[in-house]
């Protein structure tokens, strides 16, 4: 389809969080302490058993649920650190009670617990957006709106920002640095316009929206030219009529051929008529589409074009091309992981058909968050 390759948006978001927050000395030190605490319980069954006893005591005698285990993070994935800290905060009372009776490799003061709470508060929007763009239905159209929402969240100031203003400012700088040219990327810009949930509402300025519309118009003109070429190629040549003997009527005036000037005049008109009609059709369709209200956030853009391809045929042809581009490589990674669980060293002679049958029986899990 001649769509240029794109980087994984989830991976770039990972770099943003790492540069904007994880490299701060105070945060990185607290994360290191958190890893030591979690590793202590992961490596000692006795310590884990004692912690579970304390958790059950705090849950009350009427609760039969299994105590939640601590989560070990993977340093290359910021969201795993987010889940680790969030679980530590959930089990804070049990951990403090454990530290009162037993030794821990690291402990946290009240201020340090407060820093972890603020870190979770700042990272929660990133975690939510990462889940959204890592879903199986996410496309390149989700990137520009996601960046716009992130910038608005980090730029807005409110009364609850006490203690996290520096974190938000640092993250905003990282977002602006990493995604400075995201709206000028043709795939992201055109895909955003063609998603009926977003259209031109999420571009940061009028100039960016105009550039995106120009790119879309060019794609529509290419689609029109391709459709015209395909139609001309599929048209069967008409058989030539049999030659007839010319009958000259002496009473009729002789026919005169057009002058060279008139022929060139008509040729120039023909050259300019068809492109003008195509451009006009593209502009009219685009204006009608953009004037209509957007869809709901949970509605499907694919279903929209299935229902409206007859109304906007040129736009629908371009949408097939650009909305097929995923925003991340999460689904590709999940596909390879699933395949590696089916075809391994002990089952290396499976045919493609049999592997496909086995894949259908494997329960589908939530996408892996990068």
UniProtKB/TrEMBL annotation:
Q: Which InterPro entries match?
A: HATC_C_dom, RNaseH-like_sf, ZnF_BED_domain_contain
Against Pfam families, the record matches this protein to: Dimer_Tnp_hAT
Say yes or no: keyword Kinase present: no
Locate the region Disordered: 226-261
Source species, please?
Answer: Nothobranchius kuhntae
Q: What is this protein called?
A: HAT C-terminal dimerisation domain-containing protein
One annotated Gene Ontology cellular component of this protein: nucleus
Coiled-coil ranges from the UniProt annotation:
none
């Amino acid at each position: 389809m001649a769509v240029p390759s794109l980087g994984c948006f989830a991976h770039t978001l990972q770099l943003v969080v790492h540069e904007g927050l994880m490299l701060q000395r105070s945060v990185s030190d607290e994360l290191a302490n958190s890893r030591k605490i979690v590793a202590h319980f992961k490596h000692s069954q006795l310590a884990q058993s004692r912690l579970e006893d304390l958790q059950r005591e705090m849950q009350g005698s009427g609760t039969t649920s299994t105590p939640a285990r601590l989560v070990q993070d993977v340093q290359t994935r910021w969201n795993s650190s987010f889940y680790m800290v969030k679980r530590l905060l959930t089990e804070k009372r049990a951990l403090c009670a454990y530290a009162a009776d037993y030794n821990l490799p690291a402990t946290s003061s009240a201020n340090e617990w407060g820093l972890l709470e603020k870190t979770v508060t700042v990272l929660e929007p990133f975690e939510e957006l990462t889940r959204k763009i890592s879903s199986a239905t996410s496309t390149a159209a989700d990137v520009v709106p996601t960046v716009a929402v992130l910038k608005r969240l980090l730029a807005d100031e409110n009364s609850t920002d006490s203690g996290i203003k520096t974190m938000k400012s640092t993250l905003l700088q990282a977002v602006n640095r990493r995604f400075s040219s995201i709206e000028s990327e043709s795939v992201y810009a055109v895909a955003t316009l063609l998603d009926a949930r977003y259209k031109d509402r999420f571009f940061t300025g009028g100039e960016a929206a105009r550039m995106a519309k120009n790119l879309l118009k060019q794609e529509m003109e290419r689609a029109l030219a391709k459709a015209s070429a395909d139609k001309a190629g599929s048209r069967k040549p008409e058989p030539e009529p049999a030659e007839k003997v010319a009958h000259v009527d002496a009473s009729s005036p002789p026919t005169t051929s057009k002058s060279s000037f008139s022929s060139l005049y008509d040729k120039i008109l023909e050259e300019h008529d068809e492109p003008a009609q195509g451009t006009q059709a593209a502009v009219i369709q685009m204006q009608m589409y953009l004037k209509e209200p957007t869809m709901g956030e949970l509605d499907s853009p694919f279903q929209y074009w299935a229902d409206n391809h007859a109304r906007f045929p040129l736009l629908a042809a371009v949408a097939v091309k650009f909305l097929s581009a995923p925003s991340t490589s999460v689904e590709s990674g999940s596909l390879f992981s699933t395949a590696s669980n089916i075809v391994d060293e002990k089952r290396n002679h499976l045919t493609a058909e049999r592997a496909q049958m086995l894949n259908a029986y494997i329960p589908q899990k939530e996408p892996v968050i990068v």
